[in-house]
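User: Teach me something about this protein's shape.
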Amino acid sequence: MELTLLGTGAPTGLPRPDCPCAACAAALGPDARAATALLLDGALLLDLTPGAAFAAARAGRSLTGVRQVLLSHPHNGPAVEVPAGLPQPGRVPDRRELTLLTGHRVRAVALDAPGTGYAVTGPEGQRLLYLPPGGAPAGLAEPAESYDMVLADVVGRPDALAKLRAVGSIGPTTDVLAVHLDHDVPPGPELGRRLAAAGARAVPDGVTLVVGAYEDVPDVPRRTLVLGGARSGKSVEAERRLEAFPDVLYVATGGSRNGDTEWSSRVAAHRERRPGSWQTVETCDLVPLLKEEGPPLLVDCLSLWLTDAMDSVGAWDDAVWAERGEKALRERVRELTEAMRVTRRTVVAVSNEVGSGIVPSTASGRRYRDELGRLNAGFAAECEHVLLVVAGQAVVLRG
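Assistant: First, the predicted structure itself:
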């Protein structure tokens, strides 16, 4: 089954008309995208968008062989004129199946938002799933056969991928393509980096792909360290890297701090933005979790883990530190980094980067700063990917 992407952008395209934002200003050349539309084997057109005939011509394709036009957007999608010779666009009712004379079978997938998704099976058995902008499947049955290719609003609805992965609809070899791309994420390397974290990729408009052919599916980073200063956006960045996966275990190392209302507000804000399928555990005992098999871990954060570790070894007392505390802390850090080295789980860890600021005025403050720097360096050495978040922008240090 041959697929040509006539467009890969949001319904209004990218850049948006008359939008002055930085992302739209940078969406030039291959980063400019028309509204998403798919042409399958020259016979099936999913979503009729403005300029579809011209887009097909630019891609070296013709719409003269199209036998069926199906709409996925809610409210019948963007208002467009039907080019001469094309059949009138329609929509398959949820969970109903349409069989074309060309041998394609199209099943309408129920969504949790307005619109229609389409599961297409080609004449030779290849399977493709196409979801409209802002939509995720509803009522998925488990287990499910995996698709060869999934096209979805990865940036806007990463949880759609999590739902599909949970039931096996997305497998290790599924080619996940991001479509309906809007100005939410800057184009270029930043877009590619975010999509790779979700096991997805983007392609320019006009690309033709063979569904079911082997593609170099992006490897999801297995061990990632996200560094940053206060309110830099490091926790959001860490959460973003796992939001396309189900059953994540969120490891909170800060505890509840009973009586601290400001801390409780921070914890509540973190909880509210996490996917509902994630589980939370409050602990600083990270080594057993890293040694166990299980779902991905998100550890937030190592700096609070270090505070707990320094408390436990008496690191704040100069005499205890000199006698036994320093040696005990080094052993705790060694155990943690060795567990990170051998873990088989996907791990994203967050830590503060404090070594670039003002030198602390107290000996204990300087001790904490120095030990956190050593911990971050040792932990980063065991990670395939290391990011530094500054003003909400992630800078890749490794990977």
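Now, about its shape. The chain has ten helices and 18 strands. The chain has a mean pLDDT of 90. If you'd like, I can walk through any region in more detail.
User: That's plenty for now, thanks!
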